[in-house]
Amino acid sequence: MKVVIVGGVAAGATLATALRRKGPDIDIVMFEKDRDFSFSNCSIPYSLSGIIENTKDLINRTKDDFKYKNNIDARNHQLVEKINRKEKSVEVKDLITQKTYKESYDYLVLATGASSIELDFEGSKQNNVFTLRNVEDLEKIKNYVNINNSKKVLAIGGGFISIEAIENMVESGMDATIVSHGDEVLSQIDTELKGVIHNNLKKHNVKLIFDNSVEKIEGKKVTFTNSTIEEFDVILMTVGMLPNSKLAKDCGLKLTERGFIDVDRNFKTSDDSIFAAGDAVSVYNTVSRKKQNLMLAWPAHRQAKQIADTIVGNSHLYEGVIGTFQLRSFDINIASTGLSENELIKNSFEYDTAIIRANDRVSHMPNSKEIYIKLLFDKFTGELYGAQAVGEGDVDKRIDVCASVIRYKGNVYDIERLELGYSPVYSTTEDALNTAGAMASEILDRNIKQLKMREVDEKIKNFDLIDIRNKEEFEKLSFKNSKNLKLSDIRNYINKEKNTLIVDERGYSASNLLKSLSKEGFDNVYMLQGGFDLFKNFAEIKKLDLFN
């Protein structure tokens, strides 16, 4: 049996080695059009700051490693230009010699990945404009910065790569700006938590330019679409990625509406002899029960192993993805799993949400840090659909737990009752995640009513507003027409003929008050979801005029 693999990075390299383990006699040929095989894409930005000093450390295997350790014929600088499905061969161009040749296959696997979106405007091809897709791109940026003693960098786009690249370039001593055509960074994270990320970027002197884009570049001068002009030494084109699916399209394989290669649950394309994996394919999401475009390392590796099993006859249906990811931005951590609120709305889910702010460790411990957790769940059964967390504290392990709960169709009651390890140096007696589960459970059971952040602008006029924060904070900033009251005075001011909204700093005091009031028959009292501190960040992003 002969298997030809097009692409030698995450999915391609994993597939090649997995196939070799499962089939020692399989003839494996792997083509890579660029220089490097099997490099760590996700680690690339961390070389910009020098955390990873030698770019060669990013490369896990060379073509010689594949040859002598795995008996895999790995060929770099080889561009596969055409697939001949009838005769089961590919046409390959050697980019060094410029010669073209054919290679036959029994099975063909397309692990062609994705390419950076390159905007086309005046000056977009200048030598100070870069993408950041592979180690070669990285080396070009580092060389340019060092030779030209660059001090100012502009990142176009506010996604994963932009955030990580900017963090590391700031750490290396550069001034940084991010420009986005939208009103926020990281579209995968819900706006309710986005203010924490924005504030942290600003804290580290990253300038954020929203609702704008680049119109042209002349040398160092960048003209934005709002006609402002600034100078930057380096411009990063980190707008996003597009699937490398042209090869598949040209030979007649089925694509999705957005141009990704359409595959079944075994990653077989519309041709039984051709598989595809990685960033170029559309995958099944077990929560939405629909196909999703998910450009992450974990799914790419799992897909490759699935294909290897299928080729050697150990076929089993791939269970799908839920979309778990983690990210660092300077001194805050960001993590998410499952569906975001926008995705739930798009897919017409009946859902509810809970947001809490807590410490990741016992508060008197010196390394105790705040985190925000948002749970998204079925409004009738409490089944967990998604979870997000941001903050200086440890969010990764909380989201990993939520990923497991989603995987096994658990609910918010499960999260509230999970027995999680405790030590003051690692957590609190009731972990922050248990607290989030408890809040969600109270909302689900209607012991707590909340006004969601997304509803405030439209519905706040229907509420009497009672602010229970301290007087000093209230006088700094507060809702229009709100009263600042002590807890002991609230019952005398509640109008049973009208809804009342309780506003506190972080949601904790208000939720406890509501549980008490509900037992006393006050069923028209609501809390502000997440508390005032979080909401004012949300209001800033959404440009809401609600405060004194």
Q: What's the overall average pLDDT, rounded?
A: 96
**Biggest sheet layout:** 5 strands, parallel
Give the end-to-end Cα distance, rounded to a whole number of Å: 73 Å
Q: In total, how many beta strands?
A: 31
Shape: globular
Poorly predicted ranges: none
**Which percent bin holds the helix content?**
25-40%
Oligomeric nature of the chains: single chain
* Spatial strand sequence of the major β-sheet: 3-2-1-7-19
Helix/sheet category: alpha/beta
What portion of the residues fall into strands of 2 or more residues? 25-35%
Annotation field: number of helices: 16
The gyration radius over C-alpha positions equals: 26 Å
Give structural notes.
With 548 residues, this protein is α/β, with parallel strands linked by helices. The protein is built from 16 helices and 31 strands. The chain has a 5-stranded parallel β-sheet. Strands 9-16-10-11-12 form a 5-stranded parallel β-sheet. A hairpin with a 5-residue loop joins strand 5 and strand 6. The relative contact order is 0.09. The mean pLDDT is 96.
